[in-house]
Amino acid sequence: MSLLDLENVKTVAVIGGGTIGASWSAWFLAQGFTVRCSDPSSAARDAAPGLVAACWPQLSALGASGSAQEALARFSIWESHLQAVEGADYVQENAPERLELKQRLLSEIDAALPADRVIGSSTSGLKASDMQTGMTHPERLVVAHPFNPPHLIPLVEIVGGKQTSEEAADWAVAFFNAHGKRAIQVRREVPGHIANRLQAALWKEAAYLVQSGVASVEDVDLAISEGPGLRWAIMGPHLTFHLGGGTGGMAHFYDHLVPAMQTWWADLGTPTMDAALREQLVDGVTQEVGDRSIADLAAERDRKLIDILNVLSPAAKRS
Ligand SMILES: NC(=O)c1ccc[n+]([C@@H]2O[C@H](COP(=O)([O-])OP(=O)(O)OC[C@H]3O[C@@H](n4cnc5c(N)ncnc54)[C@H](O)[C@@H]3O)[C@@H](O)[C@H]2O)c1
Question: Where do the domains of the chain lie, and which CATH numbers do they carry?
Answer without folding.
Answer: 6-186 (3.40.50.720), 196-312 (1.10.1040.10)
